[in-house]
Please model this.
Amino acid sequence: MKKFSIFLVLFIVGINLSAQNKSVSQKNSLKDVVAGVEVLEVKEGESSKELELSAKDMQWWHDAKFGLFIHWGLYSIVGKGEWNMFTSRVDIREYKKLADQFSAEKFNAKAWAQCAKDAGMKYMVLTARHHDGFSLWDSPGSFDHFTSMNSAAKKDIVAEYTKACRDAGLGVGLYYSPLDWRFPGFFFPEMYRENAEQLRDQTYAQVAELMKNYGKIDVLWYDGGGDAWLGLGGLKYGMGGVGWSRRPSNEKYEGKPLYEPLKLNAMVRKYQPKVVINNRSGFKGDFKSREMEIGDFDNSNAWEKCGTMGTGWGYLAGKTEPYPLKKLLTQLSNIVCRGGNFLLNVGPRPDGQIEPAQVARLKEMGDWLKKYGECIYGTQGGPVLPTKFYGATSTSKAIYIHVWDWPADHKITIRGLCGIKSGKALTVDNVSVAVAEDTVEISCFDIKKDNLLSIIKLELYNR
Ligand code: GLC
Model:
């Protein structure tokens, strides 16, 4: 979102027409919205709570902890990231021609799924359609037939991907952006009302296609929806001689998306009653996506941190070096100790192949998880709150202390822990653990050079 707002401030000018906009959303009934798409009616004032999944239905997702995010599309051909069309203001007619080069000759959904499995991941999320509007599936609802079927590949990528994911026993996730840069009506819904309505129709039609035609979908990952994305005005206009001024970042645009997020997601629930939905459509969703910062400890509201393997989301030519293993594992551990899931991104090459160096790094993560996964999967964040040096995860049988960095004296003292039967290091360091009443003292007297993370398991008495 940060990157997003920077671009918006730089490139787009908006006008705050809140009065007009209110009438826009009031007038709109779902029946006018989409012809031919069957939708569940949501009564006026119905709370979004009813659209949220129960704790029981969310459990698989919490237990999974680790997923693979894939950003792949026409932008991969240019190799300058998925925002390039927008930031370089590419003529959409020129951009469209890229489809002739999208041959996907090394696209192999099974290899993607294998890569996720080898990394110890439990689900995947593919950018079925990013903000450029290019859809990776056979989408009759796509404006101007801007799809992979009409590209050199002539393939329904989503069909192959969803099958491979499912066959590999991974959760099937799809990313969809209600934002489409080809539509001026997205940026100025009041002024380009007709165009904004077309975009809204596309959104309903496409989300319905994805939810109806590809079997059970486990995660629906929106991006580019919601009120925040409509505040596209970097500038605002004040009457009475005030003129143009920069919109302060805390001053939200007062408009609402025409597509009415609650109704959109009521339709989603009809086709996919158990799909786990994120918060970026304007509906609160089942979990919150965090980007950039990992953020605070929170094990009562579901959240997921998405992050990259290196620089950028979509393919960046010449900049594909993955981060070091220690950094990525520490991130995963940090996130899980804070109560979240980690969705780690790869941006395959234009031909669909994931960079071998990234595949190798992911496999290293998987190898570590094969040995020490008990401190990650099926755990909860806490009960010890994270510090600069360590954090904790727990199950009903054990507490795992994850040490990211040893303090200078190589000692960690944790007070207030009861019911500890014994303690030992799971990983390679030479560690002694002393348990006395409610205090645990962990000392490391020999930090191995190749130490990645130190995991100390504190076994609990049966309760
Ligand atoms: C940001 C980027 C977007 C990317 C997303 C992933 O919002 O702008 O391109 O898809 O992060 O979370």
The first helix runs from residue 2 to 11. The two ends are 44 Å apart (CA to CA).
